Amino acid sequence: MLEAILPRLINLAQVRITLWRLSSSAEHIDFWLNAAAIDTAIFNAFVHSRDAYAVVPAGQWLSLLTVALIALGHVITATGVELAGRVLASPPMGGPQDDDGWWDNLLNTYRRFDAEDAPGIALHARFRNVSAQTVTDAEGFYRVRLETDNATSDALWENASVSLADGSLLTPQPVLQVGPDAQFGVISDIDDTVLQSSILDWKTAAQLTFLHNARTRKPLLGVAALYQALQLGTRGKVANPIFYVSNSPWNLYDLLDDFLELNGIPYGPISLRRLGLREHEILGPGGGQKFERVRHLLQRYPTLRWVLLDDSGQADAEVYSRIAHEYGERVIAIYIRDVDLETQTARDIFVESFVEKLSSTKVPMLLAGDSLVIAQHALGAGLIAADAIDAITHEVKRDQQRATQGEASLDAIKDDVKDTMTVNQ
Length: 425
Prior knowledge:
The chain is α/β, with parallel strands linked by helices. The chain contains 14 helices and 13 strands. The longest helix has 24 residues, at 25-48.
């Protein structure tokens, strides 16, 4: 792994050193094309060397100073609480710094995907007055269920804890409580549904993934106010749970977690894709995984109705159509964000085919251009309060004033150029 990536990192450093000498726009474009090519090569090296390091050798000694516990999922059900997370043989990086540049972001991305697993680690979990033991699997993941009473408090969240078996590395794990006041639940994708990812443009998508962080990535216009309105429902109480189900790899968990917090988007359990040991698990589309994960949530809460949100960039309209046919009126509405508003594309036709297929049912599917279109439909369906429309409209206008991803990238380049020129003066 290191032998494959180190030469590319050196090459990237050499390219970066030349940045301060560039004068014309053509030279700048050439620079970024070179950088993107190297980034892609780094990612390719990661993918094709995954088998070489996906499992830590048995018996490897792990220092308590380097093992890290990361809480990934946490919900109360009618019969107990489910906790999930991962143990890694490296400490978490923490949130993005104000002065992080593209080079810092690239290194952090590399560290996320190069994190070593910690299999066979004994853990102790506790919630309320109940505790249980579990052991991490071959990739360091753990999942434990604690049988407890189903009493819920007025708060949407309560705390559990997980530690190593000896009590060290005690890690708080917030637990989502779906109480009787919940009118419905929300299941949402993340990429190009909440977070601008440009998944259809691989060059832009690679740049966003490798060279940006949770502070510089941008949300979809008005998405925070829309999700806040859905969480409040029509009763004005924070009671409706939101679950994020994405095909992004779990390695990006900390970035997505920070992104939600920094942008005021309601938090919820984030279900990401496990990069398995087989090639098809790494490179496959993940549609089957998403279907099963969404289905699992509907089965976990059998009395709750659901609002589903996704985008037209992948085949998720088909996934949600299958869910709607299987669960009928338990699905209130399906909103698919149009990722290419400017033109009518094959993706739009694909989504519209499922809109037509569902027209004979009582489950509406809407191909929507923005948060306001979704909000207007949600208002008519009795999902949000009327005063939420003004808040969403205001946020859309505010978000439109924010620098675009391209402008933000250009500003970052200019800052790096100034810093480099200052150092070389």
